[in-house]
Amino acid sequence: xxxxxxxxxxxxxxxxxxxxxxxxxxxxxxxxxxxxxxxxxxxxxxxxxxxxxxxxxxxxxxxxxxxxxxxxxxxxxxxxxxxxxxxxxxxxxxxxxxxxxxxxxxxxxxxxxxxxxxxxxxxxxxxxxxxxxxxxxxxxxxxxxxxxxxxxxxxxxxxxxxxxxxxxxxxxxxxxxxxxxxxxxxxxxxxxxxxxxxxxxxxxxxxxxxxxxxxxxxxxxxxxxxxxxxxxxxxxxxxxxxxxxxxxxxxxxxxxxxxxxxxxxxxxxxxxxxxxxxxxxxxxxxxxxxxxxxxxxxxxxxxxxxxxxxxxxxxxxxxxxxxxxxxxxxxxxxxxxxxxxxxxxxxxxxxxxxxxxxxxxxxxxxxxxxxxxxxxxxxxxxxxxxxxxxxxxxxxxxxxxxxxxxxxxxxxxxxxxxxxxxxxxxxxxxxxxxxxxxxxx
Length: 441
Prior knowledge:
three-stranded antiparallel sheet; single chain; seven-stranded mixed sheet; alpha+beta; 17 strands
């Protein structure tokens, strides 16, 4: 994980942690003995510890943690340990892995597979269409869902690696709290699943390791298998990363065994589908008071819409709950607003900036995958820069080069050359995303 781009506006966590580091001389203590233990009551002096110590992805860490290569782990219900611990694992999706198509049972009416906007809904869907049974090559064993929710870890010790010098530290956990999204049990296996409702760059190993420690000590006759599941509404694909810990006592011994992808009732988007969209486009004026997009990964815009579907969120809540830093939150919320997916307003009471889905995007998010994706494509191509770039792509059989895209931006907007230069990558990547949605079949 990169430590670049840490020079950003400070959020509430940044401010509170800087105050804590100063009050308790945390850096000095870490430099002296390699770690620092802090009570939740001490954290609460500046801000609620539940908001200050949960960072599911590397990008959500406070600025001072990134600057000094630090991370934080709970070691009891009221205590945490801070050090230069190697706590996160990168996730690399295999772009060449074809998803296994799965039929949705006509007998199930209580699950809408076009409307999976929570981890529990996605997990329930995967279980009830027998993906979990297929996931582990278990010779036809049938899995039952047996555990989920918050529980105590019990007591255990483990070793963790220092990010800077690879030294190992022993950490003792005394009845900390862990949360299991789902546990599935068969005759010979117990599968622990951590679920995310979007594709991830990395995740906090603790979310699998603490439950793995707990259940490895409870279930001694079955193989405990830790699994990360991601479901993205941008691709409609369930991705399962099956891991193993080569050493129960070693936090960093996690290794990927296999990735498996599944898709429900796949729908093909053809060249003709997109061609019909393109022919019917009516060019919309450039939005006023919203910056031209600087958000290269279009799938993340869809993931942002997904987390906004359940409730409106502040800028800080988006940063805390998704794998954005604060600057990326600005870029991606602006891009979503540019396309008309999201509205921004100031809360009269708190004076905080809030984001909510537009009525139109709320409606389309709940439709079938093909209808949803074609809607997104239409919304991109309604703006002249993207329309002209896509038109050139169709005429020439390839996306225009950077210089040509800059010319198109300059001819269609009031942007200066330097800004157009920076924004050209977003134009290219969004056109690439459209092309990636089209089946070659």
